[in-house]
Amino acid sequence: MKLNIAVLAGDGIGPEVIDQALKVTKAVCERFGHELNYEHGITGACAIDEVGDPYPEATHELCMQSDAVLYGAIGDPKYDNNPKATVRPEQGLLGMRKKLGLYANLRPVVSFPSLIHKSPLRTDLVDGADFMCIRELTGGIYFGDRGRKNDGNTAFDTCIYTREEVERIITLGYEYAMKRNKKLTIVDKANVLESSRLWREIGQEIAPQYPEVETEFMLVDNAAMRIIQWPKSFDVMVTENMFGDILTDEASVITGSMGMLPSASIGVHTSVFEPIHGSYPQAAGKDIANPLATVLSAAMMFEYAFDLMEEGKLIREAVDASLVAEFCTEDIAEGEAKKT
Amino acid sequence: MKLNIAVLAGDGIGPEVIDQALKVTKAVCERFGHELNYEHGITGACAIDEVGDPYPEATHELCMQSDAVLYGAIGDPKYDNNPKATVRPEQGLLGMRKKLGLYANLRPVVSFPSLIHKSPLRTDLVDGADFMCIRELTGGIYFGDRGRKNDGNTAFDTCIYTREEVERIITLGYEYAMKRNKKLTIVDKANVLESSRLWREIGQEIAPQYPEVETEFMLVDNAAMRIIQWPKSFDVMVTENMFGDILTDEASVITGSMGMLPSASIGVHTSVFEPIHGSYPQAAGKDIANPLATVLSAAMMFEYAFDLMEEGKLIREAVDASLVAEFCTEDIAEGEAKKT
Ligand SMILES: CC(C)[C@H](C(=O)O)[C@@H](O)C(=O)O
Ligand SMILES: CC(C)[C@H](C(=O)O)[C@@H](O)C(=O)O
């Protein structure tokens, strides 16, 4: 098979972790006789520095022509405390999501037995946790109208969802639930928000089409508690963009292996595979960044973008083996102080 | 002193827990020679059933004339999965918040040594945790414009904040930080939301007025992780309404004593004191509901509404003593299976 991949390394530790994931990708392609074509594109703070745009048109073209995008991380602290900056690295990420139509962000939350002692939760609560968070990624308050009024003294953002957007993502949730343990938790704030009431209505409409799936509607505040109290009660969770941002990050730390978690963003034009951790600029260049989340993102890429399940499995096994052999970075090494 | 109190018991276990808190309040008033005047008002699902309004005008009048409101809990499952219901118990709560100008919801998160084994977190992470969450309660997406377009197929909600609203709550955050350990964490999503950028700007403007306080700006997704990974890093946290809803509920479970946590909502016209747990209808009438969160809310009432610190302290000591004596409900009893 011929794999055309765009590689966007980004900022901070992005380039380092991408390097390792690329090595793995090349090795797997060699082993299975696939032809790998890849090209690098710039994005994030480094792209602002270079061309004044965090997601330049050339990078977008590259992504559009590729079957999958392997993505590092973006962000630089110099933009963090400057609310008035007009160009920010995050705009590049959001622009990419919108332009590539990356409507579904998938984040498997899985506890690694060898890392369970790193979890902030009691072992019995989290051992065996295995669920999939699906976050809507191109709608909601991230992309609605926003602005200032009243001489800049009033600020607003709009959370907006259309029926098509909600149907698409909830249906995807049911499809994944069918492939897994047949339970779908639809998270909203239907007791307050009109957009959430639309989500709940549509959930109730679609549910009967999947009679084998147990549907659970849950308020976002309740979900935030449940992720800590009873993570094993989840199978597939689906929610809107902003709630998903918060809940998926919350969920990502319960296993104690944040540096291990990959994600896939399924799109209309192509799909993007990236670690869920950030650009971690303090660690850049120190050769301490854990590349396994990016390596596992490459595994998801083989599986989700190319339907090459054997290849994905081989990568996962290699990761497991290196954990067992304790061939790993200090953030997950036995006996190390917990990183926060 | 003369204490004029409105008592809104609400739904589910509300009346039961309020009964106990009232007993304590009466006992304390007797002991200290205060004159207690209290009157009951209806609110929530039971008020819808009785008069078709979850926060009737008569109840509002009662609250306006009182120095403090002791509040139980509201909500009934019969409204949960009916997104098209036009009158919902929650509207009563939101109406009350708006009409009484309850702009600041204060939630102390404190771990009880005798209950630490109930925490879903590892003991070392949570033992000694002690922070105050301040949630803005009358602005943001809870009270902005919302509606449907396009034949009901598009739904929107608006998150809107004015400079005055943000200044008021951030200043309150600094005032509490000054009284505590002089650290304030301002939580927003300034890398995406315009309203958050207004929060961050105003935070940066006010910070220099409190040079003794260490100010930390934190993105909401990061805060959701930090609450689990390092709760002891917080002293005072302040955030907008929706983020506060999610984060305060998340924070409330880390100590394992959800049934123990009180809250105060500081208002322009009066203040409301209530347990943070819900109406828990499954438990109503079974005499198993833990009243201690409501009892501790009464303690906060003495302290915050009447500046009667001794009285508040006495209640806290009584609660601690009853925990040590294991005179408590089954949700916090030693050796019981964890409630979820
Ligand atoms: C960087 C930021 C805009 C982004 C988001 O909020 O979506 C990030 O937090 C994420 O979750 O991918
Ligand atoms: C019942 C609901 C409207 C309310 C809220 O979201 O504010 C509740 O969750 C709370 O936190 O007091």
From TrEMBL, chains A, B:
A biological-process GO annotation: L-leucine biosynthetic process
Domain Isopropylmalate dehydrogenase-like residues, every copy: 4-340
Main location per the UniProt record: cytoplasm
Site (Important for catalysis): Y142, K189
Residues the record lists as binding Mg(2+): D221, D245, D249
Essential cofactor(s): Mg(2+); Mn(2+)
Catalytic class of the enzyme: oxidoreductase
A GO CC term attached to the entry: cytosol
Superkingdom of the organism of origin: Bacteria
Pfam families, per database record: Iso_dh (PF00180)
Catalysed transformations (reactions): (2R,3S)-3-isopropylmalate + NAD(+) = 4-methyl-2-oxopentanoate + CO2 + NADH
Cofactor stoichiometry and binding remark: Binds 1 Mg(2+) or Mn(2+) ion per subunit.
Binding positions for substrate per the UniProt entry: R97, R107, R135, D221
Compartment list: Cytoplasm
Pathway stated in the Swiss-Prot or TrEMBL entry: Amino-acid biosynthesis; L-leucine biosynthesis; L-leucine from 3-methyl-2-oxobutanoate: step 3/4
Quaternary structure and partners: Homodimer.
Family from the record: Belongs to the isocitrate and isopropylmalate dehydrogenases family. LeuB type 1 subfamily.
PANTHER family tied to this protein: 3-ISOPROPYLMALATE DEHYDROGENASE
Protein name (Swiss-Prot/TrEMBL): 3-isopropylmalate dehydrogenase
Protein source organism: Oceaniferula flava
